[in-house]
Amino acid sequence: MLTRLxxxxxxxxxxxxxxxxxxxxxxxxxxxxxxxxxxxDGEARFVNTTINGTARFDGVSIKGDAWFVKAAVxxxxxxxxxxxxxxxxxxxxxxxxxxxxxxxxxxxxxxxRAAEIEKDARLDRAEVKGGACFxxxxxxxxxxxxxxxxxxxxxxxxxxxxxxxxxxxxxEGGARFVKAEIGGGIWSVATTVNGGLxxxxxxIENGIHFLYTTIEGGIWFVGASLNGGVIxxxxxxxxxxxxxxxxxxxExxxxxxxxxxxxxxxxxxxxxxxxxxxxxxxxxxxxSGVTFESSIAMKVETRAVCRRxxxxxxxxxxxxxxxxxLSEAVLEFPVSIVGGFRPDRTGDEHExxxxxxxxxxxxxxxxxxxAHLVLTDVDLTECRFAGTIHxxxxxxxxxxxxPATPVGVRRRGLLPLRWTSRRTLVEEHYWRATRSKxxxxxxxxxxxxxxxxxxxxxxxxxxxRKAFEDSKNEPGAADFYYGxxxxxxxxxxxxxGERTLLTSYWAVSGYGLRAIRAVxxxxxxxLITMLAIMLWGIPxxxxxxxxxxxxxxxxxxxTTETPDPENPSGSYLARLSTERFEKSLRVVINSVxxxxxxxxxxxxxxxxxxxSRVVEPVFLGLAVLAVRGRIKR
Length: 633
Prior knowledge:
Elements: H1 2-7, E1 18-19, E2 22-23, E3 28-29, E4 33-34, E5 39-40, E6 44-45, E7 50-51, E8 55-56, E9 61-62, E10 66-67, E11 72-73, E12 77-78, E13 83-84, E14 88-89, E15 94-95, E16 99-100, E17 105-106, E18 110-111, E19 116-122, E20 127-128, E21 132-133, E22 138-145, E23 148-149, E24 153-154, E25 159-160, E26 164-167, E27 170-172, E28 175-176, E29 181-182, E30 186-189, E31 192-194, E32 197-198, E33 203-204, E34 208-211, E35 214-216, E36 219-220, E37 225-227, E38 230-238, E39 241-242, E40 247-249, E41 252-259, E42 262-264, E43 269-272, E44 275-286, E45 291-292, E46 296-305, E47 310-311, E48 315-319, E49 322-325, E50 330-331, E51 335-339, E52 360-364, E53 373-376, E54 395-397, E55 409-412, E56 415-418, H2 426-433, H3 454-470, H4 474-489, H5 496-509, H6 515-537, E57 546-552, E58 555-561, H7 572-575, H8 578-592, H9 603-631
Parallel strand pairs: 1-5, 2-6, 3-7, 4-8, 5-9, 6-10, 7-11, 8-12, 9-13, 10-14, 11-15, 12-16, 13-17, 14-18, 15-19, 16-19, 17-20, 18-21, 19-22, 20-23, 21-24, 22-25, 22-26, 23-27, 24-28, 25-29, 26-30, 27-31, 28-32, 29-33, 30-34, 31-35, 32-36, 33-37, 34-38, 35-38, 36-39, 37-40, 38-41, 39-42, ...
Antiparallel strand pairs: 55-56, 57-58
Helix pairs in contact: 3-4, 4-5, 6-8, 6-9, 8-9
């Protein structure tokens, strides 16, 4: 009957049926409903219509809206190459087969609110001006291939049994998956989404996989459950990518070729994630409060904030050109951070930097329990250690540079000043930069960073020294001992007497670590002693024994006396002779090794020798101690 009805309405020019308004409200069609190539100049209303076969609207042209609200189709719905000026509504409809809109053109909205599509919803090469809405619908699969949707795609509260595919499509107005239940995954290849991607509180069983996809407006997966992992590979993002409080199970890769915003994983939970890649050479990542419940390998190339991150299992973090802030991180199991990682970008669009090794930086360990932390080949020149717990158990392996003292010669008043090269803490830089204009070359603290006093820095140096000593790196611990003593020397709460003693220890030998300084003092002391001995210590002439005797009967008593050495006389220049130099040199050398020279000396010379026998061995011992501190195993 439907065929006869349409035959009676054929346009003699086109040969296809032409209808003003098509109203099939409450109709029941036992077989197929074929409206292929039909032209409907008004509206098409199939509200509450039942079609027990296939609903064919291939090539249909509808000048108004097409309503299939609460319709029931036991077969396939096909709108291939259809042209609809208004909306197409399948709200509350039931479709037992596919809903296909291949190459269809819809001038209004495509609505499937609360509809049930047992198999596929396909929009291959389709164009929809007003957007596609599947809110609260139940779908088997959803495919958007080479489609153009200008009003956005809405899957709010939808239930998709399998996957949602976006393949080389263009979505204007964003894609919304708020509170969606997707039994498969969300897949996107070479698709452009303008208006953002939202999956707030969604449950996606097979994860999300985006390749060569461009997203403008940000990504929001806040509170989402992502089983099967998260992969953004060689995609571009304009805006932030937010995964706050998301539960993620599976491999995770963020490798955006371009990213203008921040990747935010605040308080996300990684239940079983064997791999996390955050490769954002031009972006930043915020992992504050993230929890890793299982063993994980992390590859990071970005500026990453990892405050209050919790590792509940073992982890290895491979860092490339990365900057890591680990403030207040919780390490329940061993965590290793290894620098020098370079991702394999063969054939992609990232700019290659040949022959330049990547630099991994850690900027803060404040509040971290470092008992389980191992750092290998990590730059620590900007790392803040104050407030780190169990810092004495931190392990530093490979090359882990710390900030050095300023280089070059400067003036402090009229005196030249040159800082001895040593490793320091960046907190010491901050403190010294605030002291006076004479402390040139020390790095000032960034805005908002509190400058600590020496009393707070001395324990930090002490714990780092112990960490190096426990790892049998005595030479490496020397710089931290020097820093500890410097902080004690400058601590105003320490008594004046102790600070005076420390200042003397510093000036004489650099706290027993500067051999050249001790040797210099020894050489100066020996030179002064030699001059004093030559000028006043060696007598004018060698003492001659004088003997006298007494004859009493058959006995002779002989007494021999040594006269007191006679002080030298004459000009000082005359006393600086070669002979006197050789004698004074012998006296000085014997004094250094704490021996007596057996040389006759004047009273002044004896006192000079006694003082040199006390002072010069001390200088020699400090020099030996300094050398030993640098070569001790």
